[in-house]
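sorry for the late reply, my laptop died twice this morning and i had to redo everyting from scratch. anyway the thing you sent over, i finally got around to it. pasting the sequence first so we're on the same page, its 75 residues, then the predicted structure underneath. double check i copied it right bc i was rushing
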Amino acid sequence: MKRLRWSAIGAWMVWWAVLAVGFWLLGKMTGQPLGLAGSAAISALAIASGELGDRVRRRRKAKRMSLRDQAGEQA
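ok and here's the structure:
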């Protein structure tokens, strides 16, 4: 269990670092530098909102499947 948790945290940290550098480079290329700290904050927000959206999607799918199973049992 702990190994899985650390691998997930490691994956999120790598994804966060790549996204932060990407936002920073995009700002440099467009002439609107955000700074590395700002890019890190934006990338953390993007990852958090993506994870939240994924969680909502999974819950809706599970609920839909549960309702479908219940409807099949009643018929």
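The chain has one domain: 2-74.
thats about all i looked at so far, will dig more tmrw
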